[in-house]
Design goal:
Strands 4, 7, 8, 11, 12, 13 and 22 form a 7-stranded mixed sheet that branches. Strands 14-17-18-21-20-19 form a 6-stranded antiparallel barrel. A 4-stranded antiparallel sheet has the order 6-5-9-10, with no helix packed on it. Helices cover 16% and strands 28% of the residues. It contains 7 helices and 22 strands. It has helices spanning 14-24, 48-59, 62-65, 79-82, 111-118, 304-312, 332-342, and strands spanning 3-5, 32-35, 44-47, 67-69, 71-74, 89-91, 95-101, 104-109, 128-131, 144-145, 147-151, 170-174, 187-188, 207-212, 220-222, 233-236, 240-249, 252-256, 274-277, 287-294, 298-303, 319-321. It has one domain (3-355). It is α+β, with helices and mostly antiparallel strands.
């Protein structure tokens, strides 16, 4: 199995977002900007420096850190042939959003993320892994969250001619983690269902943030020869964060840079990543959607209100088994107890911050 070159889980806010603030608006400290006010239905205007603080808060929020990279694995021989579990290679990249719903952990992602990487032909019972911690690469196998089954929640919501395909939305049910490796950052929809924004939250001109793990910043490097420590390949884990403006396109929201801010960096591979609002400082950062496609000036996403509807209908959705050993989650009382014991859902990273490298030329985090 390859070694992950951590170099910090770079929240690359320099990815055009900070560049726009640094170059286009640094001189406009007194400029007024459209901003979301949670106590008013209409947008208000605020000073740029207040907006920048709000933007920085979003970039380090639990909502953004709920995004996870998916690690796919390859076996030369099936477990039955080899007699034991062994990963010959790790490959690919993909993005997802870790959520807790009805006291169960799921990874929300795009169906094509799993389909393109595996063709839904799983060579073993754990064909892809998800790190339990947002900013700490697992040092042991138990620190990964393992898939149990895939729930095709997108099939429960009709597309109705929208500019995205609702069916390109799946919920990966995960085996319940141990107390030692309980996730540190995720969307807790049990404690706060309002994290999923309603349709009323969206407005044209609203500033939005998108985050995910694109291929070109999360590729694998293969060594010419096996290293002395046995490693054969490595990867960097890099969460990319970009900003844009909400446009309403045929009745549905998109993230756009068509009017200003230049173009997006290459976001191929970031499907399944999150889209959020930029609320007032100290207000909750909400999920506004899940990315499904991106071009040079447009990011399309499935809105949060569609996701909320699909979640409510998940019991009626088609299911694809991943691990045949899965027989159901622990009883509800036990799941609640484990969650309470773990002290989950804090805003602190479960890793020494010095081991995580952040890069933001405007406001470094130390």
């Amino acid at each position: 199995m390859g070694q992950a070159k951590r170099r910090g889980n770079r929240d690359e806010r320099i990815a055009q977002a900070t560049r726009r603030f640094a170059t286009e608006q640094a001189e406009a400290s007194s400029k007024k900007m459209k901003f979301e006010n949670s106590e008013k239905e209409e947008p208000v205007e605020i000073e740029f420096d207040v907006f920048k603080k709000a933007f920085d808060n979003v970039c380090i929020s639990t909502t953004i850190k709920a995004t996870r990279r998916i690690f796919f694995n390859y076996l030369d021989k099936k477990v039955e042939e080899r007699g034991f579990f062994h990963v010959d290679a790790m490959y690919g990249a993909g993005s997802g959003i870790l959520v807790k719903h009805e006291h169960t952990f799921y990874l929300l992602t795009a169906d094509h993320v799993i389909g393109n990487a595996t063709s839904y032909k799983f060579l073993n019972e754990s064909p892809f892994w998800i790190p339990s911690q947002a900013n700490c690469f697992p040092q042991e196998l138990d620190a990964f969250l393992m898939p149990a089954r895939i729930i095709h929640i997108g099939d429960t919501v009709p597309d109705q001619g929208k500019r995205y395909e609702s069916k390109d939305m799946i919920l990966i049910e995960l085996f319940f983690p141990s107390v030692k490796h309980m996730p540190d950052h995720f969307l807790d929809l049990d404690a706060n269902p309002d994290l999923l924004a309603t349709r009323e939250v969206f407005f044209s001109g609203q500033y939005l943030v998108s985050a995910g793990y694109p291929f070109d910043k999360n590729s694998f490097e293969w060594f010419d020869e096996k290293r002395a420590d046995g490693m054969t390949h490595s990867t960097q884990v890099s969460r990319l964060i970009v900003d844009g403006v909400c446009e309403i396109d045929e009745g549905e929201p998109i993230v756009s840079r068509r009017l200003h801010s230049g173009t997006f960096p290459n976001l191929s591979g970031a499907s399944g990543g999150i889209v959020t609002n930029i609320p007032e400082p100290a207000k909750i950062v909400k999920m506004l959607g899940m990315m499904v496609s991106a071009g040079s000036t447009i990011v399309r996403f499935i809105p949060s209100y569609v996701i909320a509807e699909a979640l409510s209908l998940k019991q009626s959705a088609k299911v694809t088994s991943v691990d045949p050993a899965f027989k159901g989650q622990p009883i509800l009382l036990m799941r609640k107890m484990f969650l309470d014991l773990s002290g989950h859902g804090t805003d602190e990273d479960s890793v020494n911050r010095e081991t995580v490298e952040y890069y933001n030329p405007l406001n470094p985090i130390g």
